[in-house]
Design brief:
Chain lengths: 455, 262
Amino acid sequence: MAGKAPATIDVVVLGVSHRTAPVALREKLAVVQDQLDSTLKELALLPGVREVALLNTCNRVEIYAVTSDPDTALRAATSDLARRAGMLEAEIEPHLYTRMEREAVKHLFRVASSLDSLVVGEPQILGQVKTTFDTAARVGTSGSVLNQCAQGASRVARRVRSQTEIARNPVSISSVAVDLARNFYGDFHGKQVLVVGAGKMSDLAARALRSQGATLIITNRTRARADELAARVGGTVHEWNDLPGALAKADIVIASTGAQRPVLTLDLLAKVQKVRRHRQIFLIDIAMPRDVEPSKKYPDGVYVADIDNLQELAAHHLKGRQNEAMQAEAIVEDEVTRFMQSWSGKQIGPTVVAFRSHVLGVAHGEADKLLAGLSHLAEKDRKAILAFADGLAKKLLHLPQMALKKDAGEAMSMIDALRKLYDLQPAEPLSETEPAVDVDAPVAASKASGGGGSS
Amino acid sequence: LGVSILTALEFGAYALASLLYLGYFMGLREKAGRLALFVAVLLHLGDIGARCAHGTNPISSTPEAMAFIAFLLGAGYLLASLRYGLASAGAFAAPAALVLLVLARVVPAEEATPEMGTLGYTHILLATVGVAIFFIAAVLAVVYLFQDRQLRRKQFDRVTGRGTPLDTLDRLAGWCVSIGFPIFTVAIVTGAMWIARLGVLRTATALRPEYLLAFVTWAAFAVLIGARIGGGWRGRRAAWLTLGGFGGTVLVLLVYFLRHAA
């Protein structure tokens, strides 16, 4: 399909995201979980809306709708959003974006592939997209068009995931910390993680390590806060006064005290390593100022990563993701084109059927009317007249039909024209449950080497 | 000396595997190197089979035994990497196997020692297997030291997600040494008995330097095992000691080649 694929699909999206709206606005527009169903039902009743789904995450609120009258539908949806948020339309309009037809499909595909996410490549969004359309299907506000879009979206997201390394390396500080620890231990089962200081920062990393089989030991200058953290993340508390004893047992240390001077001094580490017989120990220092005394040379077996190391690696991974994202964009573009081709292909069949039955209906109707006034004719002559009307109609149908079958992509604009010119109401395509790739399937099946163009 | 087509293919496959494993550090997938090494090891197995069919068994002479060590190294690494994810070690294992194999195939085969006997064959077989296991330990030690250096220098981006966990490397290397050591010990004992039986020790020229070196190697590994068990030595120090012991093994082979080249 060289350049333009003039296919249309009646999908629109209206929404706000972290790119266009501050959190204060997003949280006003967000729909609470238990009101989701009723909100969907109300949205479905808006003028011009045939199908609707609502994507609702902490970074975006988006309405996906199928409509034959986008202007009316979008206006109605905007005022509905404003009403729900208790705001004026003028207040939310600058933050809203809309996409229509092909661009709306592309937007959905990009969102599902996590290309539009705050953290590109984050894994949750695909699940959220799936839930969105599952909910709409359950409530009954979505139909074949949105279902096909949803299927397309998960396909693209899966392809992006498997064909690029967009989600390969972690970008959050806590998961980078876990990743670093993996340089030292192949398996965290039975490993002891010592959390020094009950700072909030150590929570996530400690939890992640625990979920992979490590046991947590927590020590803090203030005993009460150690108890609190231990209860929260699941660990045992060790006396602060016996820090060397705790270090002797540990394989990984997460340090995040608020102390002004290093808690883990070289002296202490050297002593501890003697007791440990230089068994390796990995110190993750996320405190500021640092908890591990800075040094060029630590005792044998001691490895240290500080907050800068973690941040550098996270930034490094994020950059890697951005490179992968370019590849992912190409995949999305490719999939949108395929989706639209397949979509067009599916529209041809029903339209052609409607067109045929319209023309044949007119021809047969006129012939019947004519025959009604010519009752003296012999049966043979009546048949001849019917055959003539039928033949004329079929001759007239032949060329347009051939033209439509010739090129599925190009056909879409003709189909649109045809529908408008003859006011056709084609039935829904039948093939909504299949994964939808074969452009030629619905009509050109009889033709051995039909059109399809460049696929 | 002509090199057969099969041997040339073997060289090619090992070389390709080496390149692909080195490429792993530049972002290539591990699968590529693994596949090439698998092909190389298969070809090598076929080669050994063909030689056996011609009456040259893999432990009949030092060059044959070295080629056999290369095979054991390649196959051993391949098996271990399936279980432990040792992609980074491939960049050392594959080239090591290649160098060993090329040396073995390029050096002309000596005439078979007249009186091999059961003792002689036992000695060469055990020594071959022992050296191959030490070879794997040495490869693991080299990778350990590389990664250790990068981690101590906080070059985390180079290792993270690509390297092998230090404790896995250390454990596997220790394991190899503990298995290789008894085998090597028996090899030395049978070797000494064999020499004594041949009676060559009575002639002054027969006290060759590699006998002494072999003993030094054995002693180094004995110390290493003692230190690991008794002194809790591990990690960097153990890795260096493994390399030291293995260096002795390499010297034995070098002395052999120098003497034969002369």
